[in-house]
C-alpha cells in the first residue's frame, strides 16, 4: 500500500459526508469526492506530515465551492450574513420538543442553512473536528470559526423552531 | 462580561475551546445569569440532537473501490518538471542534485537522532490502526460486553488485559482484536465515538515505571501513550485530540465507584 493510500484513503467517509452536505445530492457528492481525492493525489507532494483528514477536507471544500459557484450561484452567496444582529438570541428560548415523526426535521433544517454555516455544523458536530482543524480547512481564523459556529447554531435553532411550529417535517 | 459579550464566547465555552482567562470570565457570567445558563443548556441539547438526528453520509463501498481504482497505477507522486531553457538546464540539474543529496544526508542524520524507540512503536501502532480500518478487520470479537471481550483473550495472549466498557461516558466498547506490535502479540480494544474508532493497544512491560499519558501525532493520527501497573497502553484515533484525551483520562484514572 502506498503512503498516499494509507494516509488519505481512510478519510473517504469524511470526504463524502462533507461533499454530500455541501452539494445536497449523492450523485454530485460522489463525483466531487472522487475529483478531490485525485486532486489530493496530485498535490500529495505538498502534504507535510500533519493532520491528513483536515488536509483532504480542505481540498474537498475547495472543490465543492468551485462547483457551488458554477451550479448554485444564487443560493451560495446571497444570504450569507456573518453578523449577529437580531436582538433576541434564538438559543435563549424554551425547550424544543420533537416527536418521533420529526426526525427528518434535523436534516432539512441543516440543509436550509447557507453552506458557510452548514459546513460549520457538519465539521464540528458531525465530523467532531476542533476549531483549529476547521480554521485550517475553511482558511479562516479560529475566532471566526467560533463566531460562525455560534451564528450557525442560532440560525439552525430558528429553522428548527419554525419548522416544528408549522408542523413541517421535511 | 454582559450577555452580548457572552453570546459568541458561550459557544467556545460549550465546546471546551476557550483559554483559561476567557473561560473564567464566562463561567462567572453564566453563574450569575439564568438567561445565559439556559442558552448554554440549549446549545448542548441541540448539539446532541443534531449528532443523533442529522445524517452522517458514509461513502459506499462501491465509491471507495471506484476512487481507489481511479488512482494512477504508478505509485510515485509526480513532480512538476522545471521549465528551463537548454543552456541552463544541466547546470540547474547539477545544482538541484547537490541540494537533494545534502538535504537527504541531513534528513537521514536528523531521522536517526529523533527516531527513538517510542516513535518507532508509535508509527507501528498507527500503521496497525490504519490497516484495521481499511481491511475491514477491525474486530476479531465483536461485542459490547466487557465480560465477553476479556475472556476472549484467554489463551491468545499470555496476559489478561483489563477491559472496561465506557458507553456511559460516550465511548462504547465495540470489540477486541489480536495484533502484533514490537515483535509480540498484543491485545487491542476498540472503542467508538460517533463515526470514529479508537484502537487501544495493550501489552505487559515488566518492571517499567508508571508514566503519565503523553500525546503525539503521527501522519495526522492522534496517539496517546502511557504506562500503568506494568502495562503499556497506546490509544490511536482520528478523533480530535481533546476527546481522545478525555478517553485517556477515563482509562488512566478510572472513576472510583
Which chains make the largest contact? A-B, 66 and 57 residues
Strand portion of chain B = 15-25%
Return the CATH topology of the largest domain in chain A: Arc Repressor Mutant, subunit A
Total domain count of chain B: 2
Count of helical segments of chain B? 8
- The total of beta strands of chain B comes to 7
**Class by helix and strand content of chain A?**
mainly alpha
Principal-axes geometry of chain B comes out as: globular
CATH arch. level architecture of the largest domain in chain A: Orthogonal Bundle
CATH topology name of the largest domain in chain B, in short, is Phosphorylase Kinase, domain 1
Kindly provide the radius of gyration of chain A, computed on alpha-carbon positions and rounded to a whole number of angstroms. 17 Å
Order of helices and strands of chain A: HHHHHHHHH
N-to-C span of chain A: 44 Å
Throw out a few tags for this protein:
heterodimer, A: 170 residues, mainly alpha, Rna Polymerase Sigma Factor, Chain: A, Arc Repressor Mutant, subunit A, 2 domains, 9 helices, 0% strand, elongated, B: 257 residues, alpha+beta, Phosphorylase Kinase, domain 1, seven-stranded antiparallel β-sheet, 8 helices, 21% strand, globular
Describe this structure in words.
- The complex is a heterodimer of chains A (170) and B (257).
- Chain A has 170 residues and is mostly helical.
- Chain A has two domains: 3-77, Rna Polymerase Sigma Factor, Chain: A; 90-166, Winged helix-like DNA-binding domain superfamily/Winged helix DNA-binding domain (Arc Repressor Mutant, subunit A).
- In chain A, 66% of the residues lie in helices and 0% in strands.
- The longest helix of chain A is centred in the C-terminal third of the chain and has 25 residues, at 142-166.
- Chain A is elongated and about 55 Å long.
- In chain A, 46% of the residues are buried.
- The mean pLDDT of chain A is 86.
- By secondary structure, chain B is an alpha+beta fold.
- Chain B folds into two domains: 3-53; 117-252, MucB/RseB, C-terminal domain (Phosphorylase Kinase, domain 1, 2-Layer Sandwich), CATH 3.30.200.100.
- In chain B, strands 1-2-3-4-7-6-5 form a seven-stranded antiparallel β-sheet, sandwiched between helices.
- In chain B, helix 2 crosses helix 3.
- The longest helix of chain B has 29 residues, at 86-114.
- Residues 75-85 of chain B have low confidence and may be disordered.
- Chains A and B meet through helix 1, helix 2, helix 3, helix 4 and helix 6 of A and helix 1, helix 3, helix 4, helix 6 and helix 8 of B.
Amino acid at each position: 500500500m502506498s503512503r498516499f493510500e494509507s494516509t488519505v484513503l481512510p478519510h473517504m467517509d469524511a470526504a463524502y459526508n462533507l461533499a454530500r452536505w455541501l452539494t445536497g445530492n449523492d450523485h454530485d457528492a460522489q463525483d466531487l469526492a472522487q475529483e478531490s481525492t485525485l486532486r489530493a493525489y496530485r498535490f500529495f507532494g505538498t502534504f507535510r506530515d500533519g493532520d491528513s483528514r483536515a488536509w483532504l477536507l480542505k481540498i474537498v471544500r475547495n472543490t465543492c465551492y468551485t462547483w457551488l459557484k458554477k451550479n448554485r450561484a444564487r443560493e451560495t452567496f446571497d444570504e450569507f450574513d456573518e453578523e449577529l444582529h437580531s436582538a433576541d438570541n434564538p438559543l435563549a428560548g424554551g425547550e424544543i420538543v420533537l416527536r418521533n415523526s420529526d426526525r427528518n426535521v434535523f436534516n432539512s433544517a441543516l440543509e436550509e442553512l447557507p453552506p458557510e454555516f452548514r459546513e460549520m455544523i457538519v465539521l464540528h458536530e458531525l465530523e467532531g473536528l476542533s476549531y483549529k482543524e476547521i480554521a485550517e480547512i475553511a482558511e479562516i481564523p479560529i475566532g471566526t470559526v467560533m463566531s460562525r459556529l455560534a451564528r450557525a447554531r442560532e440560525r439552525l435553532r430558528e429553522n428548527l423552531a419554525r419548522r416544528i411550529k408549522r408542523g413541517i417535517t421535511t | 462580561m454582559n450577555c452580548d459579550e457572552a453570546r459568541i464566547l458561550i459557544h467556545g465555552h460549550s465546546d471546551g475551546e476557550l483559554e483559561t482567562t476567557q473561560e473564567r470570565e464566562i463561567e462567572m457570567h453564566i453563574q450569575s445569569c439564568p438567561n445565559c445558563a439556559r442558552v448554554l443548556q440549549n446549545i448542548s441539547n441541540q448539539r446532541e440532537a443534531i449528532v443523533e438526528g442529522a445524517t452522517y453520509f458514509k461513502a459506499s463501498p462501491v465509491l471507495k473501490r471506484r476512487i481507489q481504482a481511479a488512482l494512477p497505477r504508478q505509485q510515485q507522486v509526480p513532480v512538476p518538471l522545471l521549465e528551463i531553457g537548454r543552456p541552463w538546464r544541466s547546470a540547474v540539474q547539477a545544482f538541484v542534485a547537490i541540494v537533494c543529496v545534502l538535504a537527504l544526508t541531513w534528513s537521514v542524520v536528523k531521522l536517526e537522532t529523533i527516531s527513538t524507540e517510542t516513535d518507532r512503536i508509535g508509527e507501528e501502532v498507527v500503521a496497525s490502526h490504519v490497516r484495521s480500518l481499511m481491511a475491514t478487520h477491525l474486530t476479531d470479537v465483536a461485542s459490547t460486553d466487557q465480560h465477553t471481550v476479556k475472556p476472549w483473550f484467554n489463551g491468545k495472549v499470555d496476559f489478561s488485559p483489563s477491559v472496561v466498557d465506557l458507553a456511559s461516558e460516550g465511548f462504547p466498547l465495540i470489540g477486541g482484536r489480536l495484533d502484533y506490535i514490537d515483535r509480540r502479540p498484543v491485545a487491542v480494544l476498540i472503542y467508538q465515538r460517533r463515526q470514529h474508532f479508537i484502537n487501544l493497544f495493550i501489552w505487559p512491560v515488566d518492571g517499567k515505571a508508571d508514566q503519565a499519558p503523553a500525546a503525539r501525532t503521527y501522519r495526522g493520527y492522534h496517539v496517546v501513550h502511557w504506562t500503568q501497573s506494568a502495562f503499556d497502553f497506546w490509544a490511536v484515533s482520528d478523533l480530535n485530540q481533546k476527546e481522545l484525551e478525555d478517553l485517556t483520562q477515563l482509562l488512566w484514572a478510572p472513576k472510583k465507584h
